[in-house]
Design goal:
The complex is a heterotetramer of chains A (312), B (515), C (353) and D (331).
Chain A (H helix, E strand, L loop, with lengths): L1 H8 L1 H26 L7 H19 L2 H25 L4 H24 L15 E2 L8 H7 L2 E2 H19 L1 H11 L1 H6 L4 H27 L11 H12 L3 H21 L6 H36 L1
Antiparallel strand pairs in A: 1-2
Helix pairs in contact in A: 2-6, 2-7, 2-10, 2-11, 2-12, 3-4, 3-5, 3-10, 3-11, 4-5, 4-10, 7-8, 7-12, 8-10, 11-12, 12-13
Chain B lengths: L1 E11 L5 E11 L3 E6 L5 H8 L7 E6 L2 E3 L4 H6 L2 E4 L11 H6 L5 E2 L2 E2 L1 H15 L14 H14 L4 E5 L7 H16 L3 E5 L3 H7 L2 E6 L2 E7 L5 H9 L17 E11 L5 E11 L3 E5 L6 H8 L7 E6 L2 E2 L5 H6 L2 E4 L3 H5 L6 H5 L10 E2 L2 E2 L1 H14 L16 H13 L5 E5 L7 H16 L3 E5 L3 H7 L2 E6 L2 E6 L7 H8 L7 H7 L3
Parallel strand pairs in B: 3-10, 3-11, 6-9, 9-10, 15-22, 15-23, 18-21, 21-22
Antiparallel strand pairs in B: 1-2, 1-4, 4-5, 7-8, 11-12, 13-14, 13-16, 16-17, 19-20, 23-24
Chain D lengths: L1 E3 L8 H16 L5 E3 L7 H10 L4 E5 L4 H7 L7 E5 L13 E6 L1 H16 L11 E6 L4 H17 L4 E6 L6 H13 L4 E5 L5 H10 L2 E6 L2 H6 L3 H4 L2 E7 L1 H13 L7 E5 L6 E3 L3 H6 L2 H15 L13 H10 L3
Parallel strand pairs in D: 1-2, 3-4, 4-5, 5-11, 6-7, 6-8, 8-9, 9-10
Antiparallel strand pairs in D: 10-12
Helix pairs in contact in D: 1-10, 4-5, 4-12, 6-7
The complex binds adenosine-5'-triphosphate (ATP) (2 copies) and magnesium ion (2 copies).
Chain lengths: 312, 515, 353, 331
């Protein structure tokens, strides 16, 4: 029991929350960027997978983690553009296309992995590179806080910085305004001469960019190789985290952190022999409850305002 | 100089409907040119082609005597064309300024310069005499303002040609007047204006020339002063249309609807109904006049079970029904023609037949126990399509493919045949052509004479005056006027009450209803 | 005109499939030395022997069920993607009923199926209730319920129904009364496919020939309109998902009763997501679900047979599948041609008038 | 033909089987096909039938999941020979004279791993702490995995009755990221060595060991040798691997078949004695593990061989008994 308390209250535990949250947060931001323009990107999972794969491959070939990252993100963006092409030009159902792209990515990465390394499970026989961890000057010397906030993977910082950038982008910039307009009323956007198609392409591209970072983090930070289907549903979890947070990047962040917390807790909880099925279930139960509370409180809030007014 | 020439325009929609069958259309620079025609004649389609939303199947377009190809609204805007659509095209959660500068946002660094945007709007507002509140969200604004936003949207993009697709359908006479003043001003400054309307009186008042479309073809272009309203409607419909409707004396019976001290607060806390009380008898039409946004919508939604949380009393044939939902009220024989046919009145993706039975699908002959009988439904729909002259080739056509006016007819057809005791008609003839308006109004009188109690809400004062047996006027959520016999009452007089300049004593109104 | 359109759609679909196959062939050239043989098995494999055809039927069975389940909720415009969890939990419930209920021939099968339907329905009821009462996103809740179904289901099997003599996490074997029997001695054909076809007709009938189906479709087409017309939208939101969950639950039960006779899944079988593909291919029409499910099953079976006969890895097949699905559903693919046909026909009609 | 009811690339079990086949192809001059059936269970039975229909002489399948199917199918093809590894068919069902079953006593090997871990954790070696806590990472809470666990716990308790074992199941065999997090949590809670029984997920364990600078024990193949080329530093964190020599056993079975000496119609259990199972004895083991521990392991090996130590198996073990065992080492 002592160990458990020790496990939960240790700075490393909070540190690990941030790390576990990172890929989910990228996925959530990817979901957000497509969702504000009115398209649900089910293909995030596949994009992450592609990026994770190419990141490892190219970093192994070139010996540079950064070029690997670039390649990974590029592959994800290309995939997102292909998805956009099917959706916007060939008028494929977006959900269906997303699922098809996920299937495609899962198959293609394993196939290519085999082609390049002769191995179908993982790239662990390949010497690939990881992106560095970063100590934040000043903060790293503060006792507990430093242990939690400093020394993270560079992409973890990028993820949290992205939250602010994305929020600013969506709500303060012209392109963000156009994105939201297309999402809320495409006819209105069209009526002022905005090309709805172009905007949706852009939003898909940005979504692919975020998914690309998320995938690269998995294979070039979290661990140091590619393994088949290594995203393991994180793209979908990201979609859920975004849905929890609505059209706000901060909302997406809180949603992702909720998942991160529940997941990190579930790892630690296994130690006290709660059946693993239950601890594994934890993040999902958490989400359902959080969703219920959130949705309910929103309803109650509206009711309350009205009642107060009535009394007055 | 000719601003627009559209030559031999043919448009085939993807479903095979030929909406324009070789239309020729010419507009001179600086004129106000009216485009009229029955519902489904192809007016909107023609304008969408001009604005680049639809591509013509064949035909040629010249703008300022240069041949052009317009592939998108972006092209159209670049060529100086602006369009105000039949159904509003605004982003509800955006502010007025955001809506107007969308796509041409002023920038400060990476951000939108909101101050500059507001300034742009204020300046344009002043210049064209179209006042709007730049920082308010569009969501909460009345339609009159939305209309102005749409026009401003086109103007700040430097439009030299302005298309207005039924801009007055939702406006009060005063608002229409203001709009006309603004339009005339614009025309004087050299703006070319295309004006689509079913209100021939307005066409006569504002336009220099008029082009009539019928069934996708041009019937001719005339100097407005050379043709009378009757002439125009004859050209449109192909027969004479009675513009004045005969109305036999009402024979009011017992009280059907009794509303007492109704109060309602909206979600945002604003009180939109204040002590509303009135009564309505069978066999009579009670007109509710008022500028849109003065509580009529909320009143109607409360009465029809679409909005909850009001306090007071509403009785239907003596039974308290406040707080009941639409499911219950429909079964207590309340029918409802809603203000908004696209959002509420119809399922655009469903067929005409399916739309026509949405309130009676569970009854014979359409259904028995669990089962539904589609053949019966289609038979019924065919009859309704004929009775209400809905222009379509099949009862299985999705309603979304009908023209605006024909959509309205589908809604009207359903609600008139609901066998209701109380019919609440909110803007029943909005966007319907003269021929069909005549039909709907006659139908209203007919159901009244059959003993139905009709609550008629309309922004069209002519309609109110023509049809109502009694009239109440709403202003800021209150009933401020009551008129028993409307003979002699003028639109202008009514307008004073609608704008809150005059009001009757509250007790007098209550007395009139014997409440 | 309508006939022409139908003909066109048939031609277009055939052409798309041909193009997709051509693309697939290109991938094969890349992946193997003998693409011709591989391709032959892919195309011809599922009908090359009765045994393989039976395999095709068995593979189509769960896809029909989940395709139907997804069609129902999609028709109501509810984005519930919980079929996966519902079928998993349905299978767990079926296992419970199979192991613990009295072994009366025939009746036992019915009880097990009903139990699975109830469990699937129950599972779907959670997102349904949350949506109807609190307007909580069903996408999120149903997705989460999938994971919960998986882990909770495994827990129940692991701690209460695990066959201790088995070398894997599986339940005890079902008693014979809870089997869907083998119909042919040499071939593993079981009645699942017939139940599935029956349900396709049932669901079609429900959607298009009952008033509840009508309500459901109207809610899907325009919720506000449905409410306005006096339809109890909340009820529809709830019952459409529950019915969908019941059909999905059935998918799980039928599969394990027919193929394995015990609970064997260590991971979710993925039929729920396949169901989304099938439903979308079928444009949510229950009758069209049948050919759509067969198409997907045919691709899978063909691919597996190709793998068996030539040793080609299943991953290639996944890529192939994705491409075929993408192209078939690409509505605008070859649409210029469609436009021309329509325009010509329409103009001819005009001239006749 | 070798039928894999999964896909290749797991770095342990199936890959090892495939390696055995390749070895046989090279040395024995046979021709073989490897067919991956994927994880879709509904495909397994038809595939086996389909393959049996064709003219392969020997068909090899593995794992308990194929057992029932094989029991059904084998009697229909009496002229074919079948080999099943990592489980045994139930010969009492009759008509199974054409099936040869290979079993592995992974519990025995794990006993050694557990004993070694228990010695190391309190040894005061570098990277250790004085607490008697060791870790175990399983792919899923299923009998095959628990067979490792049972041996591991018993081995550890044999050395130190007060030993504590932190047991984690990832719930998946293909989520290295999750494996890593789980083991990081174990290390945080005081474990300093952990046993990896989780397929690809287990790769995460090795990474965690490197990152937190703790010890790891590999599984199935000699994992130190696999990673050393790519990441020597990681290899230095793997004290040894509990090897399950599927490759050798399949090779042996094929060789015996050609020689006509393979005992079809019977099951053989390969343990330490038959070299079916054992700890990897490589340079890392020699350099990292002190001699006295290695000697102790040798001694235990002998005791097991002589039957003086009997290791329990998770197969057929009731849930309660397993829980009791797991709870007895709960930290
Ligand atoms: N004057 C305009 N009126 C209406 N829409 C415009 C106008 N100018 C640009 N747009 C719309 O904005 C979109 C972007 O086009 P463009 O890049 O030319 O604009 P911009 O103002 O230069 O934007 P940015 O500076 O962000 O690139 C186009 O789709 C177009 O529809
Ligand atoms: N998107 C569409 N798809 C198919 N058919 C359409 C579409 N839009 C309009 N139509 C058809 O084209 C014809 C012309 O419609 P249009 O909207 O141009 O009429 P309109 O003259 O504007 O009528 P109204 O006065 O009622 O607005 C109608 O028969 C209508 O059903
Ligand atoms: Mg129109
Ligand atoms: Mg220790």
């Amino acid at each position: 029991m002592n160990e458990l308390v020790h496990g939960i209250l240790s700075p490393q535990f909070f540190y690990s929350i941030l790390r576990v949250t990172t890929p989910i947060l990228f996925a959530a931001l990817a979901a957000l960027l497509s969702d504000v323009a009115g398209s649900t990107n089910i293909g995030i999972e596949g994009m992450m997978l592609m990026s994770a794969f190419w990141g490892v491959m190219v970093s192994a070939w070139t010996g540079s983690a950064w070029i690997g990252l670039l390649a990974g993100v590029t592959s994800s963006v290309l995939l997102s553009l292909a998805l956009a092409y099917f959706y916007l030009n060939l008028k494929t159902d977006l959900v269906l296309a997303g699922i098809a792209f996920n299937i495609f990515s899962s198959g293609a990465t394993v196939f290519l992995l085999y082609l390049f390394t002769g191995d179908k499970g993982s790239s662990s026989s390949l010497k690939s590179y990881v992106l560095p961890k970063i100590d934040i000057p000043l903060i790293k010397d503060i006792p507990v806080v430093g242990d939690i906030l400093s020394g993270h993977h560079v992409l973890t910082y990028i993820a949290f910085i992205s939250v602010f950038v994305v929020q600013y982008f969506i709500y303060k910039t012209p392109l963000g305004l156009r994105l939201r307009a297309v999402g809320e009323n495409p006819d209105a956007a069209q009526s002022v001469g905005i090309s709805v198609k172009k905007i949706r392409y852009i939003s898909m591209l940005l979504s692919g960019l975020m998914a690309g970072f998320g995938g690269a983090f998995l294979s070039m930070g979290y661990v140091s190789w590619f393994a088949r289907d290594m995203t393991n549903g994180r793209g979908f979890i990201g979609l859920a985290a975004q849905a929890l947070g609505g059209h706000s990047a901060f909302g997406s962040m809180w949603g992702s952190l909720l998942f991160g917390l529940a997941e990190a807790a579930s790892y630690t909880l296994q130690a006290i022999r709660i059946p693993s099925e239950f601890t594994n279930m934890l993040p999902f139960i958490f989400t359902i409850i959080a969703l219920a509370i959130y949705a309910r409180s929103k309803l109650l809030q509206i009711k309350k305002i009205k009642e107060e007014e009535k009394k007055a | 100089m000719k601003a627009i020439e559209m030559i031999d325009i043919v448009k085939v929609y993807p479903n095979g409907i030929v909406a324009n069958k070789g239309v020729n259309f010419e507009v001179e620079e600086g004129e106000i040119h009216a485009l009229v025609g029955e519902n489904g004649a192809g007016k909107t389609t023609l304008m969408k082609i001009l604005f680049g939303i639809e591509q013509p199947t064949s035909g040629e377009i010249r703008i300022f005597e240069k041949e052009v190809h317009i592939h998108s609204p972006h092209d159209a805007i670049a060529k100086g064309i602006g369009m105000v659509h039949q159904h509003f095209m605004l982003v509800p959660s955006f502010t007025v300024a955001e809506n107007i500068v969308l796509g041409m946002e002023p920038k400060k660094g990476f951000s939108i310069d909101m101050d500059e945007a507001v300034k742009i709007v204020e300046e344009a507002s002043k210049r064209y005499g179209l006042e709007v509140p730049p920082t308010e969200r569009v969501l909460d604004l009345p339609v009159g303002i939305k209309q102005r936003i749409e026009i401003l949207k086109a103007l700040v993009r430097g439009a030299k040609i302005l298309i207005l697709d039924e801009p007055t359908a939702v406006l009060t006479p005063q608002e229409t007047e203001e709009l006309f003043v603004a339009l005339k001003n614009l025309a004087k400054k050299g703006m070319t204006i295309i004006f689509i309307s079913h209100k021939l009186k307005e066409v006569k008042e504002i336009s220099d020339r008029v082009t009539v479309l019928r069934d996708g073809k041009t019937m001719g272009t005339f100097l407005t002063k050379d043709v009378s309203e009757e002439d125009i409607s004859r050209l449109m419909v192909g027969r004479d249309v009675e513009l004045v409707i005969e109305r036999p004396e009402p024979k009011p019976g017992k009280i059907v609807l009794e509303v007492k001290n109704l109060n309602y607060f909206r979600e945002d806390g604003v009180q939109v109904l204040k002590n509303v009380s009135f009564a309505l008898r069978e066999g009579e039409i009670l007109g509710v006049a008022g500028v849109e946004g003065n509580g009529q919508r909320e009143l109607v939604e409360i009465l029809t079970g679409l909005r909850f949380g009001a306090i007071g009393s509403v009785r239907l044939l003596g039974e308290e029904i406040l707080g009941y939902d639409a499911y219950t009220l429909r079964r207590k024989k309340i029918a409802h023609i809603p203000e908004d046919r696209v959002e509420k009145g119809a399922a655009l993706k469903a067929s005409i037949a399916e739309n026509l039975i949405s309130d009676r699908y569970y009854k014979e002959p359409f259904s028995k126990r669990l089962l539904l009988f589609p053949r019966k439904v289609i038979e019924y729909a065919k009859k309704a399509i004929k009775d209400f002259s809905i222009k379509t080739d099949s009862p299985l056509t999705p309603v979304g493919m009908l023209s605006g006016g024909n959509m309205q007819k589908v809604v009207v057809a359903r609600e008139f045949t609901a066998g209701a005791k109380l019919l609440i008609a909110d803007q029943p003839t909005r966007g319907i052509d003269v021929g069909s308006t005549e039909f709907v109004r006659k139908e209203l009188i007919k159901v009244r004479d059959e003993g139905v109690a009709v609550l008629l809400v309309s922004a069209d004062l002519q309609e109110i005056l023509q049809l109502s047996d009694r009239i109440i006027v709403m202003y800021k959520g209150e009933i401020v006027g009551y008129f028993d016999k409307n003979e002699g009452l003028t639109e202008e007089e009514l307008g004073y009450y609608m704008l809150g300049v005059k009001r009757h004593d509250e007790n007098k109104i209550k007395e009139a209803f014997a409440l | 005109m309508r006939n022409k359109m139908v003909l066109f759609e048939v031609v277009r679909t055939a052409l798309t499939i041909a193009i997709a196959l051509l693309l697939g062939y290109l991938i094969l050239i890349f992946a193997t030395d003998d693409p011709n043989t591989a391709f032959k098995w892919f195309i011809y494999g599922p009908i090359s022997r009765l045994r393989r055809f039976v395999e095709l039927l068995n593979r189509a069975t769960p896809l029909i069920f989940t395709g139907l389940a997804v069609s129902i909720v999609f028709q109501a415009e509810i984005f519930n993607i919980g079929a996966e969890g519902q079928l998993f939990f349905g299978a767990v419930a079926a296992t419970f009923a199979a192991l613990y209920f009295p072994q009366i021939p025939f009746l036992h099968v019915i009880i097990v199926l009903i139990f699975a339907m109830a469990a699937g329905g129950l599972w779907a009821a959670v997102p349904a209730y949350m949506k109807a009462k609190w307007n909580a996103s069903e996408l999120v809740s149903s997705l989460m319920m999938n994971y919960v179904a998986f882990y909770l289901g495994l827990y129940i099997i692991n701690y209460h129904m695990r066959d201790v003599n088995a070398g894997f996490l599986v339940s005890y074997k079902f008693p014979r009364t809870a089997w869907l029997p083998r119909l042919l001695r040499r071939y593993n054909l079981y009645p699942g496919i017939f139940i599935a076809l029956g349900f396709a007709i049932l669901v079609w009938f429900f959607l298009y020939r009952t008033k509840y189906g009508y309500e459901l479709r109207m809610v899907g087409k325009n919720k506000e309109f449905a409410r306005f017309s006096g339809i109890k939208v909340e009820n529809v939101i709830i019952y459409s998902q529950i019915i969908s969950g019941m059909v999905a639950g059935l998918a799980g039960a039928v599969e394990i009763m027919g193929l394995y006779k015990r609970f064997v899944w260590q991971m979710t079988p993925g039929y729920g997501f396949d169901g989304i593909i099938v439903a979308l291919l079928a444009r949510n029409n229950p009758l069209a679900v049948i050919p759509a499910a067969f198409l997907v099953a045919y691709m899978r079976t063909g691919a597996l047979i190709m793998g068996r006969m030539t040793g080609i890895a299943p991953e290639i097949v996944m890529m192939l599948q994705a491409i075929i699905i993408l192209l078939i559903t690409a509505e605008a693919f070859l649409s210029f041609w469609k436009k021309r046909i329509i325009e010509k026909a329409a103009m001819e009609q005009e001239e006749k008038k | 033909a070798l039928l894999i009811n999964g896909t290749l690339g797991d770095k342990s079990f199936f890959d090892s089987a495939a390696r055995g086949i390749k070895m046989a192809e090279k040395d024995l001059g046979i021709k073989a096909t490897i067919i991956e059936m994927g994880y879709d269970q509904s495909a397994w039975r038809p595939t086996l039938e389909d393959i049996a229909d064709q003219d392969y002489d020997v068909i090899i399948v593995g794992t308990w999941q194929m057992q029932e199917i094989l029991e059904d199918v084998a009697p229909m093809y009496p002229e074919k020979k079948f080999i099943i590894f990592d489980t045994t068919v139930d010969y009492s069902k009759g008509d199974l004279d054409n099936v040869y079953s290979i079993l592995y006593k992974q519990n025995e090997g794990s006993f050694l791993a557990g004993a070694l871990a228990a010695m190391i954790t309190t040894s005061g070696m570098e990277k250790t702490n004085p607490q008697p806590i060791i870790g175990f990472l399983g792919g899923m809470d299923i009998p095959v995995i628990n067979d490792f666990l049972v041996g591991y716990i018993e081995g550890a308790k044999y050395i130190n009755p007060n030993i504590k074992v932190i047991i984690s199941y990832a719930g998946a065999f293909n989520d290295p990221a999750k494996g890593k997090e789980l083991v990081l949590a174990q290390y945080r809670q005081g474990a300093d060595i952990s046993f990896n029984v989780a397929g690809e997920t287990g790769i995460g364990l090795l990474e965690a060991a490197k990152e937190m600078d703790k010890w790891a024990i590999g599984v199935d193949s000699d994992q130190a040798l696999i990673v050393e080329e790519k990441d020597p530093d990681m290899a230095w964190h793997i004290v040894t691997s509990m090897m399950k020599n599927v490759d050798l056993s399949i090779y042996r079975a094929l060789k015996l078949t050609i020689e006509g000496k393979c005992p079809y119609g019977k099951a053989e259990a390969l343990g330490i004695a038959e070299k079916g199972i054992g700890l990897a004895d490589n340079k890392y083991y020699e350099k990292i593990v002190p001699k006295k521990f290695r000697d102790k392991i040798k001694e235990i090996e002998k005791l097991i061989l002589e039957g003086k130590i009997k290791v329990d198996t998770a197969f057929g073990m009731p849930r309660e008994k397993l829980d009791e065992l797991r709870n007895s080492v709960r930290p």
